[in-house]
Specification:
- The protein has eight helices and eleven strands.
- The protein has 319 residues and is of the alpha/beta class.
- It has a seven-stranded mixed sheet with strand order 1-6-3-2-9-8-7. The chain has a four-stranded antiparallel sheet with strand order 4-5-11-10.
- The longest helix has 11 residues.
């Protein structure tokens, strides 16, 4: 069931077993996994079913350091930023999770083994399954071309998959609408997480619409699935019980924001006869309904020796 928060009587309280804040890729995926169960799920989405400039303007903000547009990089309507996602898919590498003395504050609280079982299900969701990210033999057979192995030991060959790309709102919205236990609350901006005095329990989330209505959602459990900018914003704004913001006792909420930094045209490779190169090295190729392109990554040994950050290099054909 889809409900527009602007159409509800002012002061409406919605009861649920689980409240998911955010109707993007993460929120939709979680809701789908609980569809048609006994768990009453309320997905709280700040936007509507399509883009609205007035809603999108809520992303206006300032940045310091490297220029960064919060409006251009995020979309505030059902499906979230999957609505303009380019479709690039590649797993993280084990070294990305490690504490490295040349990378300040590095080290995740778990290793890649925690995520590994979920890459294949995720590949199905973004419609690239089965994921063949490092299967050189498969791509050689699929393309009929021999792929050279990097000789220096500094780089390794992997393969970036391209999702159609999957637009989560349009692709999976029908499933949520038809599910008898899921309510999608649209045009509902979460402005505060109301916590108990000691901050150990959430009593409700407060919701406002751009038309001035105020609502609340009360649930047994709550999930923040609003993305790397909105999650910390909501937590930091919820500071009536915890002065620094909920969950921010260590002053880490909102720090260590990760973004895909794209740098193009930073180098040239001169090839005497491009026709001799396997096509997958410089452009996307299609095989069995999937699209992929080869990519080069520094080996973990090279990164450690040179004390570098990880990166992915892809080649394109000029002119």
């Amino acid at each position: 069931m889809f409900t527009d928060a602007r159409d509800l009587p002012d002061g409406t309280t919605i009861d649920a077993d689980l409240a998911i804040i955010g109707g993007g890729a993460a929120g939709i995926t979680l809701a789908r996994s609980l569809a048609n169960t006994r768990i009453h799920v309320c997905v709280i989405e700040a936007g509507g079913l399509t883009a609205d400039p007035a809603v999108q303007s809520l992303y206006q903000g300032d940045s310091t350091g490297i220029p960064y547009s919060t409006v251009a990089t995020r979309l505030r309507f059902f499906g979230g930023s999957s609505n303009h996602w380019g479709g690039y898919c590649r797993p993280l590498d084990p070294i990305d999770f490690e504490a490295r003395d040349w990378v300040p504050h590095s080290g995740w609280p778990f290793g890649i083994e925690e995520l590994a079982p979920w890459y294949e299900p995720a590949s199905r969701i973004v419609e690239i399954a089965p994921g063949r990210f490092d299967d050189r033999d498969y791509w050689q057979q699929a393309t009929g071309e021999v792929l050279p192995a990097p000789a220096s030991g500094r780089l390794r060959l992997q393969f970036v998959h391209f999702s159609p790309p999957t637009r989560f709102g349009s692709r999976y919205g029908g499933e949520l609408k038809d599910a008898n236990n899921i309510e999608l609350l649209l045009n509902a901006n979460v402005t505060r997480i109301a916590a108990a005095e000691n901050g150990s329990r959430v009593d409700e989330v407060e919701v406002r619409t751009l038309t001035g209505k105020r609502h609340s959602v009360e649930a047994r459990r709550y999930v923040l699935a609003a993305g790397g900018l909105e999650n910390p914003r909501i937590l930091l704004l919820s500071n009536d019980v915890a002065e620094a913001g909920l969950g921010n006792d260590n002053d880490l909420v909102g720090r260590f924001f990760m973004e895909h930094v794209h740098v193009s045209g930073f180098g040239e490779v001169v090839v005497a006869d491009p026709g001799q190169l396997p096509k997958i090295l410089y452009r996307r190729v299609e095989a069995e309904g999937r699209s992929a392109q080869a990519a080069f990554n520094p080996t973990a040994a090279f990164l450690r020796r040179e004390r570098l950050l990880n990166a992915t290099f892809m080649v394109g054909m000029a002119g």
